[in-house]
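Table 4 source record.
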Amino acid sequence: MISFYLLWTLCYFVLLRWLAEKWPRKSQKTGFDQGLLAVALLIPLRNEAENLAKLFQEIQKIDYPAIEILLIDDRSEDGSFSVLKEKAKQDDRIKVLQNPGVGKKSALEFGVENARAELILCSDADCRFPEDWVGKMVSPFSDPTIQMVCGPVISAGQNTFFQRFQQIEWASILLITQYFFASKKPLMCSGANLTYRRSAFFAVKGYDQNRQYLSGDDEFLLKKISAAFGAKSCVYLPFFDSTVLTQPQLDFAHLVNQRVRWAGKWKAHRDWVHAFSALGSFLIQGIWLASILLLGLGAFGILVFLTVWVGKIVAEKSALGSVLKALGLRLSFADFVKSGLLHPFYVLTVAVGALRGKFEWKGRFN
C-alpha cells in the first residue's frame, strides 16, 4: 500500500503538471474586422429580478458594432419580464421575448428562431463580460469551417474561503475542458460563454432528442455539432480576455445542487469518454480518502500519509494555480491546503447526489 500511494502521488503530480502545460499563456491575435459578422446575444433567464440591474450594466459595456440582444424570459415568477420590458426601452439593440414553451432549451430555441444574425452568442443573466468579449468570441468564425466557439467561465469573488474554493474547483474544470478540446475530443463547455452558427444549430436539429433533460443545453449541443461537423469545427479560447465571470454559489448546499445537476447528465451522453471522465473523477477522490488506511501502518505509514497529502496539495497548487494566474486570479497556498482537504469529500457528495439524480433548478425539480 505504501508503494502504491507514493507512486500514485508522483503520477498525480506529473499528470496535473502535464495538463497545466497545455494551457496557453497568451491570447490569440486575430486582426479580424469585427464589423463584418453580425451576432445575436441570447440570454435566457428565469426569476432573475435581483440580477437585472447588473445585467443591463454589462450590456451597456458591449460596443460591438453589429449586435442584436435577445433576452428571453422563461416564465419568471418574480416580475422579471415586466422589468425587462421597461429597461429594454433604453437600448434599441435589445429585444425582449417571452418563452412560449417551458425550460431553458425551449427559451434558447425560441431565441435562435427569432435571431436575425447567423452567429449566436449565449450567456446567463448573472454573468460579467470582459472588454471586447463579443469580438473575441466571434473572431474564429472568420474560418468558415468553425461551427462553435467556447470560452471559460469562472465564479467571481474572493472575499471568503468558500468563494475561493469554488474558483479552485472551476480551475480544475477548465483544465480538463482545455485538454479535451486540444485533443480534438471536446467533452464539455458552459452555456454561459459559447457561440455557434445558427445554420449549424438547425442542421443538428437543436435540442431534439434531449429536450427532456432540465439542463445540458451546452454539452448536448457541443456533442451534436462536433459529431456532425467534426471535432475541429469546435474550438476553445482559454484566455483571460475570453473569460466570463459568473456569480458564486451562496453555500455548500447550493453548490452541491448545481454540480449534481451538471454531473447527472453523464448517462445521457452515451459516450464512454464522458462516462469514464465522470466516474474517473469520483474514483480518484475515493483513492485519496482511502489513504487514511496508511495511518494504521505505524509511524512510517503516518509519515507516508502526510507525504501523500502534501504531494497532492502541492500538485494542485502548481497546476490549478497556474490556470488561475493565467485568468488574472491569485490564491494563497492556505486556500489550496483547505481546498485539497475538502475537495474529495465534496466530490463524493456530488457523486451520491448524481446517482440519485434529484435536483432543483430555478424553482423546477428533476
